[in-house]
Every structure is written in C-alpha cells, then in structure tokens.
C-alpha cells in the first residue's frame, strides 16, 4: 500500500462503561487505495471503500479507553499491512501484548485462506476423479484385450490396482511438471534466483545433481557461507519436480533455530509469500520438537535430527522420504552418529533412498570409507582475509586489569573435584609472550582462561569502536558465548554501559528466544547504528549473519559429558577445538576484510587445543542409545554400537546395559520393558527420567521435575572466597526432610516466592546475596525445568489441556529477548502435584527412582556407610545436611565421587525402610522368619508380625500393577480397583512412619 502523508485518522468512542469500552477508527485517504479482501472477524466490523476505511469494535470490549483505542488501532494496522511484503515486519514495532494480538489475527487469516484453499482443492479433485473414472473404464477394456492376446489371465485385482496406479502415476508426472513450471515463473522466484546465482554453491548445481543421480550416497564439503544448507535441498526439490517425479526431501539440522530459519529462507527463495511456509501454498515446512509446520503439499522439510530419529523408530523404513540430507555432520552429535549406523543398514533395504552428507569441516575420507566409498564434492566458500588476535592482544590493547576482590572469586559449594592449573603450563604460556609489555604478562599470569571475563569483552568492544585502525570492523560484532547465562550477563552489561546507550543495537540469539525477537539480528542496522550479536555456537555453522565484520570468540562452548567417576551426565563449559576456532573467525570475513579476537592465548590455541571436537558417543552416557537400539529393533546393543564411526568401548556399553537392567528399563535378556519405552522419550539419564515419571504417577511432579533440573545443571549454592562457613550456615537454614536434594528444592522455592512477590530485581539480588545463592544458576534451572516439562508432555506421558499447552509454549519464548524481563515460572498442573509438599512421598519417590543407589549404616550410631551395590565404604560430603546425622540407617544418593582415597556421596536423602521394602528392587518375603530380603541379600528388613508382612506384599504387588499399567498406557485412567489401592497408598504415606510398628532394618 503506497505511503500517504495526507492521511486523516479519527478515533471515536463507541461505548464507555466500566470494563466495557469500545472504539472505532476512520482512516481517510487523500487518494484511492487498493482494497484487499477483508477476512471475516466477529469482533471488529470493517467497512472498506477506496478512500475511506472504517473499523469498529462490535462484540469485544476492554477494561479502559486506552486499551480500547490500542485494540482498534492494532486491528486497523493489521488489515492495512498484513498482506504487504514490504511492511511484513511492522508488527515487530508493537508492544508485546499487541504483537500477540497481531499473531492471533494472522493465524485466523491463515486459517480462513487455508479453508478456502481446501474447498477449491476439493472441487478440483471431484472434477479430476470424474475424468479418471471414465479413463479407467476405457483402460480396463484395452488392458483386458491386451492380456487376452498374450494368453494372460486378467483378474479384477490386477486390472484395477495395476492400471490405476500407472495411469495415476503418469497423470501425477504431468501435474508435477505443470506445478513447477507455474511456480518457477513467479516474479518473486525469478527475483530471488538472481541472489541464489551469486552463491558459490550455485556453480556446483549440476555437479551435485549428477552425483546424486549416479550414487546412493554423496558427501558435500562446503566452506561456511557457500550456501549449501539452503541450496542443496532446493536443488533436489527443483530437479525432481521439473522431471515430473514425486519427492519428499528431509534435511536434518542439529538445532531448532537452524531448522526454522533455514525453512523460512528457502520458502522465500522459492517464491513463497510471507506466512505461506508450512501451508498448502508452499512446498517447504519444518518439524521440530513440539511443533510441526507442514501440510500435505510439503515436499521439503527441515527437521531436527531427533525428529528423524523418532521417524526411524517406526517400521516403514522412511518410505515417504526420497532424499535425506544430513547437515552439519561435523558436529558428531550422538544423534547424527547413531543415525549413520541406522542408515548404513537402511540403505541396503532402500536402494531408492538418496542420502547426502553436508558439513563445513568434515573428515571426508573417513566418512566416505564408512559409507562404502561415497564420492566427495568440495565447494569453496566466499571469504575475505581475517586479522586474528588473541587474549594477550586484547589485554595489551585495552590496558585491562582484572578485579581481584574476594567477592568476585566465587566457587561452587559442591565442586571439590576441580584440579588446580599446573604452574608449569602457566609459566610456559607467559614465556611465549615475547614482545608484550610487562603489565600484560603480569595480567595474563593471574587470569584464569577457564572463566569468561565479561568486563574485558565490554572494554574490548568499546576500544574497537574508537580505535583508528580497528573502527572499520565495528559495524557488526558477533560475540560467541557458551550459553544463555553468559548471553544474559553480557547483554545486561552492554545495555547498562553509557558508552553503548546510543548508536548501538544489542541482539541475543538463542533457541529459547522467540524467532520474532531474533529476526532483526540478521538485518542490516539502520544508518548510523552499529550492532552487537550475542550467540552460542549455533552461529558457528548453523546460521549466517551476513554483515558481521568482527568476531569476539570466548573459545568456549557448552557440551554434555559423562563423568566416569560420578556416573552421570553433566552440561559443562569447555574449550572448543582448533577446527571450531577456524569456523568462528571465518564468520568475520564474509563481506569484507574482518577482525577476530580469540579470548584465549595463542599458546593455548597452538599447543593445548584439540584438532577436532570429541564425538559425543565417546563422552556421553550410552544408556539412551542402548534403549534406542532396542526401539529400532537393530539387534544386539554391543554389536550395533560397535558399528559406529567411532565406536565406544565395550566396557562403557556393558555399563550402560547393566544400569538399564538395574532400573528395570531392560530385562536380563536386553528386551525393553514398558518403563524403558517411556524413558526413551525423555532427554535425561534413566534415574532422572524415572524420577519424573514416578513424580507424575505419585503426584509430586513439581518436586521431581525441579530436582531433575537441579541435578542436570549444578548446585545453586555458592560461596565467596573465605566465606565457606557462612555459606554452609545459609544452606542449613533451608534444610528439609534430612535431604540434600529437598534442601536445594526448598531454597529454589524460597527464591521463586521472592521473584513472584514483584519486589523487582533488587529484592531478588539481595535475597540471593544474603543466602549465598547463584542467581544465574537458579534462572538456568527454571529454564531447564520448562524444557523438561515440555518433553514430558511431548512424550504423551503427561496429558495437558489446550490451555496448559499454550501456556507452556508461551513460557518457552519468554526466556530471552532484549533487556531484562521479569522471571517467568513453570506452573505444573495441580492434579499431578498434590504431594510435592509431602516429605514422606518425596523422599520415597527419590529412593525408588535412584535405586540401586542406596547406602546403609550397618552399625547404628556409627559414621560408617556402605554402598549396597559394591559394599564400598562411603562417607558424606562435608556440606551434606546429613553429615552429622548418625541415627539414619538408609540413605539414597545420586553421585559418588572419589577425592584422593575417600569416596564421598553427594545429593543424599534419608529414606524409610518401609518405602524401600515397598518398591525398591525385587524382594523375598519369609513369613516364618519375619524377614524381607532385598535383591539377593542387598538388604534385609524385619517386620513385627505376619499381618504387616502380608500388607507390604499385597500393597507392593498392587502398586507394581499400577505402575506397569501407567507405563504401558500413559494418560489412561486407573481402574476402580487400582484407584482404591492408590488411595490406600496415599493415606498411608500421608502420616508419619513408626519404624517400631512397621519395618526395621536387620544388621547383616
């Protein structure tokens, strides 16, 4: 719609009453306007004339006049601009609440046009079917005569299915050719084609298509920025349609944001309008966890690797897929490596399936040999020279001196395994600084490269912006950070620094931030403005910000590692490889000569960094893969995983299988149990996965899901240097139920109450400082809690109402954005959260979930504890709330760590013997001796009489049946009898246990 500086806008009050205010707006144009089709809206009446638009609120009202005026203004703006591609981002300028209203109207408009399209397609299909029926009658007669001449027997089945399939296939071929001819003649497609032809990948189009036609598998090595992620899938789609062949192309991406952004870009390049993606008007869609934006017409799908893995768990061998593109295979994720195992076998059954592996940095020859000698196609990038500088250069340039105050030296209370840095390495690094000032050498001698110095980054950016030789690189700066916590910290520092208050735009990029809030980061900043983009390693190869001229690389990324000592997976920040560093600095040279500051020393880069990233299969727990092997019915677990590109050790595979048998996810013959099927759907180790499942069944889900988030990250308790005693006392103040885990949960709840009291950021900061809590860790725990609840709902084990699901989706996109926002919290449905405040239920569910991780005190009152799994002597961590509790007989734990010659248990919880006898392991009840034996004498319990033993035995059997039904048929209501037994359990666990009256431990 053309600009009209003489437009006249008049607002009128239609009605004014308490909580019932309505407005109308009249827009008078100075010249006639194009009148677009008005989508019916029951709440707003629209009267459109060539020079006069009138919008009136009819069936909707607002609490006050200000909201009413804003409501009708947003509705009018939507009608005027929503169909104009040049003004497609106007909604981004609206406040959040009205941006949401815009999205609702856009969805209603989309549904309206989709319904029209469906009706048109229905009518066309009816006409086509009439013609097909007539052709079929003629075809059957001719086919019958032909078969008669060849003495062939004509059967109804043969004549019907065979000829119909061929005639439809021929007609489909012609339709596809016409479809593509029409789409490729669009003006928008032709305009975007000019841009595509400038990409390095375009010159290799014929080479790619020729290689795909001649080979079942090919490998494409393309430098960053060559356009492989957008062009190769599009090449395949265009080629197949132009040849009149049916196709379904899937392109896997390691991250959700990559799948969404690439799908949007390719949809635009193929001539689609804004909003067409995933509809019947587009050939492109995307599929990520909890969101599938596709239609029946979709022929190119960008999907996360996990989605394709779920598809492979079916039994149809991906029959609907003709081409499978695996992007970013160099990242060596556990999903992508396992996908290669499955594909090696699938390719033998699906000779028609085409597989294309793509990466920016890939060991091509190894992949080629692994996949039977697949050909490799190398595509150069389009990059300019990049000036490379390191940490010592940043310190020298800025004159930076780090703070040495005690309040800055924070340590985690639970982390006693950090090895001190070897002085020899520090000395060697300082010796390598020839030519640098003594001050720089002194600063680097005391700096810890393992920690990110956010203040130094701020000072470096400020210096680059004014330096005569470096200022030319400051128009668009990309900062690589390991996670959302560091993004938030640096974002707040930059927005709070007066040097960046004018002339600068700061954009965080992360999968938890709404795509609408991130789109501006990909655009050129307005004239006179400079931008800073804060991103994780997703910006390394997954997405491209085209105008970046300066990169600041912290040299860290976040990765999961399986700790052999702790026997659990943890998300840690660690140094990247040299290959990663090369990719990151390459981002600065896409449009002109660039600048890169690596915030680690040159000595570390040249001497200490690994060449390539370690494959996840060699550093993660294999329990999830073992379950997946069984779900995909690939055969033996050790045999299957041994077929990986970098196979894990047999010892680690055996350990994973044993752990799964212990928690009843696998049987002794390595068959999946109903519990195993449910655990396979959760992104957790089996113990935490079981905790969430049991927390759902026994109605203490908030406790369970919060504890799982805490144990998947790190303890929120911390201590400034020299204040360990005060920190321990603060921790003890939150003590609950003689449990380290519930103590941390109690501290989390206290923090949550402070945040929800609307006291502002200052109150939250004071609370955390007073109680020695790490504010950022608590925020990360809350973010992870939302992700886990989403996964539980996505698995189908927790059924959410539509309102609850929408609330969860809104929460997912409220975690980030520009500036600080009030902390949002996950709300667990009350129906599965009746027992989170019940200490007996909570401690019992923890023990049942972590079994066989149990400690027993054989001699009452003594300090000694024994691990029932291996009879090892164990002590408790010094910060444990149970450290001096010598009368506790049974304790569950989550982690055991070795410190020198001492084994210490972490995250312990005192557990009642009755709870252990009820649902832990297998038991044998000896009525004559009055003893319950646990798992072949791992533990023994005495009961006062045969009636008590009978009650335990019967209740145990009924609860086992209830659990089995819940795992087999999640979401299905319990039978009346099972409800009665659950009520018995609930009443029993709502009162204090009396050990003398129920169960006692027998000392072995």
Structure description:
The protein has 1004 residues and is an alpha/beta fold. The protein has 6 domains: 1-154, no CATH class; 182-378, 3-Layer(aba) Sandwich (Rossmann fold), CATH 3.40.50; 386-405 and 448-611, P-loop containing nucleotide triphosphate hydrolases (Rossmann fold); 621-670, no CATH class; 853-911, no CATH class; 917-1004, no CATH class. Helices cover 43% and strands 15% of the residues. It contains 34 helices and 33 strands. It has an 8-stranded mixed beta sheet, with helices on both faces. α24 (686-697) runs antiparallel to α25 (701-712), α29 (775-795) runs antiparallel to α30 (802-812) and α32 (913-919) crosses α33. 39% of the residues are buried. This is RNA helicase. GO terms for molecular function: ATP binding; hydrolase activity; RNA binding; RNA helicase activity. Residues 160-172 have a biased composition (Basic and acidic residues). Residues 469-633 form the Helicase C-terminal domain. It is found in: Plastid, Chloroplast.
Overview features:
nucleotide-binding, P-loop_NTPase, 1004 residues, 7-stranded mixed β-sheet, globular, Rossmann fold, ATP binding, 33 strands, plastid, 8-stranded mixed β-sheet, ATP-binding
